């Protein structure tokens, strides 16, 4: 149809050349991420993000990168599995204190303070918060298990996050779980998704970064790590997290939350969990976002006064019935976990600030490792001696978050999240100005001539 439209539009005009461009994009392998190269050219930091996070081997299989041979330093999939809690008695140690219980009361709010929970629980956030959230969604009934199996599974997964990672640790998993639950609770997902899909999303959130080595997929490819070899350089980390999550789940009956599911339910749940974990790969960011925008445009009419009136009368669902297809539901689930995974810049500013410094620290360590091993430096901007964390944060928001959360707010009606993101965007710009001024005045003090000695 496009070819026909192009032919009939005649040559040399604006429509003809626009259609030429459209056809070029459609023929490329980057169907839904056509503007990735445009954003890349904007500035070096944007280019760092796209190269470093959107693993170019997955974006463009023709990229002929030079990979330097180095010995692996990251533990591979064959690393020892941690053993879960096996008896009811031992679970008593995870009984939350009164202080933790009172904090957990707020687990369904956007301002939930996960960092405070981390310090109150000595970094064991995933079990108490997980129990609370899975309970809230009726997971134990749906899975046919008791609380002890759930707690044991959460502990097992938690133990397989690396507590030494500045960012990709069990607290991040718990944070993503909390955000996932928050989004699932909103009206549209509540109406569209069934209980099994909700539980799949919560499980996916818990395992989505398990055994993360605090290095990116590109780093694993560049070091010829066993995981990169195993997954043929494609979505290395995400494939590993999904596989490792299931491997751990099936390790022992005591902690197997899926052991009582019928084959059919199990297969459908497993499919959804894997699909969601793989959707957290940043290389697919623009593809998933574009598909979601298209899905909304095709099925959701802009809300007018009339619609609002109809809504209160309960007849609005007909115009959104198109949303309820298996592929659309899957795409919504992908967005739930994707948005949850990168939602910490939209948290209360004091939390967003902490997360920003943690991710920067993890990137700094990777850059140092790359220099030490004489590897290509994937994100040179993240050099601890020169990096401006405020700049890196608001650039990340510009490239990946502002547009996504604007659409996500349009879909979920979560102005508190989108407005907080915008507030933090302004916060980081202000901090950058402040830091620049401090630096300038420090330089001025250093270079100003010493006060002349008073002549007696
Ligand atoms: Zn994550």
TrEMBL record:
CDD domains: HDc. Coiled coil: none annotated. InterPro entries: HD/PDEase_dom, PDEase, PDEase_catalytic_dom, PDEase_catalytic_dom_sf. Keywords: Hydrolase, Metal-binding. Zn(2+) 1 binds at residues 172, 208-209, 341. The keyword Metal-binding applies. GO terms for molecular function: 3',5'-cyclic-nucleotide phosphodiesterase activity; metal ion binding. Pfam families: PDEase_I. This is PDE8A. It comes from Bugula neritina.
């Amino acid at each position: 149809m496009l070819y026909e439209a192009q032919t009939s539009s005649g040559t040399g005009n604006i429509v003809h050349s626009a259609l030429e461009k459209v056809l070029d994009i459609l023929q490329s392998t980057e169907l839904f991420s056509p503007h990735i190269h445009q954003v890349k050219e904007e500035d070096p930091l944007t280019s760092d993000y796209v190269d470093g996070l959107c693993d170019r081997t997955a974006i463009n299989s023709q990229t002929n990168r030079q990979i330097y041979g180095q010995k692996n330093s990251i533990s591979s999939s064959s690393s020892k599995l941690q053993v879960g809690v096996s008896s009811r008695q031992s679970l008593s140690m995870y009984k939350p204190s009164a202080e933790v219980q009172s904090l957990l009361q707020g687990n369904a709010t956007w301002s939930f303070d996960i960092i405070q929970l981390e310090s109150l629980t000595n970094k064991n956030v995933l079990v108490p918060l997980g129990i609370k959230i899975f309970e809230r969604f009726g997971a134990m009934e749906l899975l046919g298990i008791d609380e002890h199996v759930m707690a044991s599974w959460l502990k097992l997964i938690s133990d397989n996050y690396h507590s030494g990672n500045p960012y990709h640790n069990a607290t991040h998993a718990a944070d993503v779980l909390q955000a996932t639950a928050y989004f699932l609770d909103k009206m549209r997902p509540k109406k569209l998704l069934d209980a099994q899909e909700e539980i799949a999303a919560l499980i996916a959130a818990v395992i989505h970064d398990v055994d993360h080595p605090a290095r990116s997929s590109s780093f694993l490819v560049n070091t010829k790590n066993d995981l990169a070899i195993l997954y043929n350089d494609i979505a290395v980390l995400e494939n590993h997290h999904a596989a490792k999550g299931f491997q751990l789940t099936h390790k022992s009956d005591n902690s197997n939350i899926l052991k009582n599911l019928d084959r059919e339910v199990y297969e459908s749940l497993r499919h959804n969990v894997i699909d969601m974990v793989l959707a957290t790969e940043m290389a697919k960011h623009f593809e998933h976002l574009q598909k979601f925008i298209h899905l909304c445009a095709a099925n959701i009419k802009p809300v007018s006064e009339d619609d609002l009136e109809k809504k209160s009368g309960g007849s609005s669902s007909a115009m959104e019935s198109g949303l309820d297809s298996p592929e659309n539901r899957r795409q919504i689930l992908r967005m739930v976990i994707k948005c949850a995974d990168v939602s910490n810049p939209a948290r209360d500013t004091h939390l967003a600030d902490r997360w920003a410094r943690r991710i920067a620290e993890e990137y700094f360590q990777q850059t140092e490792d790359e220099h030490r091993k004489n590897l290509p430096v994937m994100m040179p901007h993240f050099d601890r001696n020169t990096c401006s964390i405020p700049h890196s944060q608001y650039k990340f928001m510009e490239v990946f978050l502002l547009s996504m959360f604007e659409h996500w707010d349009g879909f979920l009606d979560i102005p508190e999240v989108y407005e907080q993101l915008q507030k933090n965007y302004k916060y980081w710009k202000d901090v950058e100005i402040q830091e620049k001024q401090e630096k300038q005045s420090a330089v001025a003090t250093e270079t100003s001539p010493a006060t002349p000695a008073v002549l007696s």
